[in-house]
User: Fold this.
Amino acid sequence: HGTCGKNLTWVLTKDGVLTISGTGEMYRSGLNNAPWSAYKEQIVSVFVKTGATNIGMYAFCNLSALTDVTIPESVTGIDYGAFQNCTSLTTVSLPASISNIGAYSFNDCSALTDVVLLEGVTNIANNAFDGCTELTNITIPNSVTRIGADAFQGCISLTSVSLPANITSIASDVFGGCKKL
Assistant:
């Protein structure tokens, strides 16, 4: 247990549930130095309680046992590399309150098969889902106006994508290597 933001605390239970409580922004972490990094092999579930406003940079990266994430409506953004290399994470459902999916946020989540983004997301940043080799389904809502470079590069299991009419910017190589698309 400890702090992970000015007004946020964390606790890890023996059954592998990491709970974030309080209000405000999560601290930005460096690669492999989130407050719970010493326990990263034990974390199977992350539960962020209402009050947190973002998922911090590299917050949950390299949690190889993580299978389940709960994110509340109070969260408006997912920062750089937040879930990068969470190789057991299979599905992600993000609340409508999130407008920005940060760069590399789900990069190399190699077990991720299904992602649901709700109306409200406006930006899918560079490499957001790069290397999600098992991703077969992605719902891109009409609110998305920008998809960054390499956002879905290497998603070799992706077979179809519907792009919303409101997109104003699609960067280079967004679907590079998506051989089944």
Summary: The first strand starts at residue 2 and ends at 5. The CA atoms of residues 156 and 179 lie 6 Å apart.
